[in-house]
Specification:
The chain has 332 residues and is an alpha/beta fold. It has two domains: 173 residues, Quinone Oxidoreductase, Chain A, domain 1; 132 residues, Rossmann fold. Helix content is 28%, strand content 26%. The chain is built from ten helices and 16 strands. The strands form three sheets. Strands 3, 5, 6, 7, 8, 15 and 16 form a seven-stranded mixed sheet that branches. Strands 11-10-9-12-13-14 form a six-stranded parallel sheet, sandwiched between helices. A three-stranded antiparallel sheet has the order 2-1-4. Bound molecules: NADP nicotinamide-adenine-dinucleotide phosphate (NAP). The site of NADP nicotinamide-adenine-dinucleotide phosphate has 28 residues, from α3, α4 and α10.
Length: 332
């Protein structure tokens, strides 16, 4: 066992992840009571990594702080009194500061056991959880509904497609390229709209004149406005994120307030952050892990290889270039 490990910390607030971050070396300590020491094998890249580095989630001015928010690794040592985990167990950690670190020494509540130390189970911990809590808890997803997922071929999006199909819905997904469309069709997406070739609003107006029952919206800007325009009577729009505005200043919009569009359709607008359902996190994670282990869900993983902490900023920029299909993973 070495004496030190490396991790990425933010030394200032900036949405430019590369500028905000630096790799530092830190001492390995013995896990205390109720703690475990984990060697990370995979770190998950998330759209919101730039919001975390930019001080959007918290801006208490305490520097440095650890970056990233999901990892999978193997337990190497356990503290006194720990009975839930043993050395060799594979664990996932959907926690702030977990992704870009070669090792983690934290309390047991920050980890969940997974069947294998593999990127599929990394994808469960934030992407799967977000899709599941969003659709089931915030969105009250039923079956036999028309469900629209934007950025459907992304880390969270591919989970949404699979969960909405498993629940027995008609699923529409948006993406930018035919290559992504092919992946979405293989996941069972009923109608893929390649928005670089087809106009989203026109397709929805022509093919779904009754509107959409449930929208899982992740892009923002004009995409969000189009979804609002095509919501069904008593439809629900979930705001999961708005990646198109993360890197710049918020767009100023002048126009009638949104209730002019929602009231006449008895429609709901529901924003959500999965962390605001803390009592549901464990049960959703356990169900998702079972679905992956049983082969009912096949998390989409982006094939581009990112190796080591040095590649993390490249991986974050790659995700924000919109080129990824599925979860972007950094391997350690
Ligand atoms: N609410 C929560 O608790 C929660 C938790 C995790 C993530 N999220 C949100 O979920 C969304 C997806 O996150 P993710 O990490 O899984 O990312 P991702 O979907 O894997 O990657 C982003 C995808 O967004 C699409 N996109 C559309 N417009 C874009 C733009 N202007 N710039 C860059 N990409 C654009 C691209 O796909 P196309 O090229 O196919 O359009 C791109 O591949 C984000 O909005 C994120 O903030 C929310």
């Amino acid at each position: 066992m070495p004496d030190t490990y490396r991790k990425i910390v933010a030394h200032k607030y900036s949405k430019n992840f590369r500028e905000a971050s630096e790799i530092v070396s830190t001492e390995i300590v013995e896990p205390g009571p109720s703690q475990i020491l984990v060697r990370n094998s995979f770190g998950g890249v998330n759209a919101s990594d730039v919001n975390i580095s930019g001080g959007v989630y918290f801006s208490d001015g305490n520097f440095p702080f650890d970056l990233g928010c999901e990892s999978v690794g193997e337990v190497v040592a356990v503290g006194s009194g720990v009975t839930e985990f043993k050395a060799g167990d594979a664990v996932a950690s959907p926690q702030m500061g977990s992704a870009y670190s070669e090792m983690l020494c934290r309390n047991v509540e920050q980890f969940i056991k997974v069947p294998h130390c593999s990127p599929e189970y990394l994808s469960v911990s934030v992407a799967g959880l977000t899709a599941s809590i969003g659709l089931h808890e915030a969105g009250n997803m039923g079956s036999g509904e028309t469900v629209l997922i934007t950025a459907a071929a992304g880390g969270v999006g591919n989970w949404c497609v699979q969960l909405a199909k498993l629940a027995g819905n008609h699923v529409i997904g948006t993406c930018s390229t035919q290559e992504k469309a092919k992946e979405l069709k293989s996941l069972g997406c009923d109608r893929v709209i390649v928005y670089s070739e087809e106009d989203l609003g026109e397709v929805l107006a022509t093919e779904y004149p009754e509107g959409i029952n449930l929208v899982f919206e992740q892009v923002g800007g004009q995409t969000f406005d189009t979804c609002v325009d095509h919501i069904a009577q008593r439809g629900r729009i979930l705001i999961c994120g708005f990646i198109s505005e993360y890197m710049g200043d918020p767009q100023e919009v002048t126009g009638p307030r949104i209730y002019h569009k929602l009231l006449w359709k008895s429609a709901q607008l529901q924003a959500f952050l999965y962390k605001d359902w803390p009592d549901k996190i464990t049960s959703h994670l356990e169900a998702l892990i079972e679905q992956v282990a049983g082969g009912h869900i096949n998390p989409l993983l982006d094939p581009k290889e990112f190796l080591g902490l040095e590649s993390a900023a490249d991986a974050v920029e790659y995700l924000h270039s919109g080129k990824n299909t599925g979860k972007v993973v950094v391997r350690y």
